[in-house]
Amino acid sequence: GRDTSARTLRSSATSAVTLPGSKDLTAENAEGRRDIGQAHHRREAVLVLSRIGTPEARRAVRQALGDADSSVRLVAAHCCGLERDAGSLDALGKIVVSDEPPVRMKAAEAIGRLRDPAGAPAILASIRRGGGDRFLEHALIYALLRINHRDATLAALDDSNPNVRRAGLIA
Q1: Rounded distance, CA 124 to CA 134, Å?
Q2: What was the pLDDT predicted at 28?
Q3: What is the pTM of this model?
Q4: Residues with Cβ < 8 Å from 118, sequence gap 6 or more?
Q5: How far is CA 61 from the centre of its chain?
């Protein structure tokens, strides 16, 4: 049907623009297309930019972490985690504390993949904030486990919030 042919076309286009040395789709081209009104187009652009993997493309993916649409931010956080993009840590740290629960969960996963102790305070702040579900709680605790930083975990044990202390005990 139509969905299958659209997927095939999208897959072919993605493969074509992600060939090594391909200059057909660059971060400059993507930045010039900020007028793309539909979120699903912006999500697709983020996925393609992530596969390109150049420094310019990674910067464009990081910029998508500030998109107005939560689904685009979710995809951007996912891509930053998959690529282990250390440059995205500050933006992910803000998202993990203040965004909607599904996006916070993806940001926690990405921070955990980075394994940078600098991400631990944002994880603890997100646990302290609460407001999520068991899936978000699990992602936050698992991120703390993956960061695997003794001092950050000890800081959790001394926190006044019982949820943070519990996460510290688990991690």
Answers
A1: 16
A2: 45
A3: 0.80
A4: 89
A5: 9
